[in-house]
Amino acid sequence: MKEKRTYTIDKLPADRTDWAEVAKLSDKEIEAAARLDRDARPSTKTQLVKFKRVHSLKSTDIKQIRGKLNMSQAVFAAFFGISKRTLQEWEQGRRHPEGPACTLLTVINYESRAVERALMRQ
What we know:
The protein has 2 domains: 19-50, no CATH class; 59-120, 434 Repressor (Amino-terminal Domain) (Orthogonal Bundle). The chain is mainly α. It is built from 7 helices and no strands.
């Protein structure tokens, strides 16, 4: 009988990924490895088209995302390529991010380090 393992959020197993080795892989090698992983198969184009947006961001969400990164409006806007004025209008609820901007903010919220790494490569 298999042993049942439960984890609390503060006792998750340590990440065993060697990110230096991952960084050396080509896109083709990463894609090939993903195809072999039964639990992480890439989505097909047909599946991706069916995805629906779960929610739009509120002004408080945007301010919270920026606050979580401890960035001023000017720094956040410059770093992520957003107009400072647009950011202010989003945070004050006069305008709302749409499409790619909403997606970028969502990714920044959940994976800010990945976005930072990607932007630093430019």
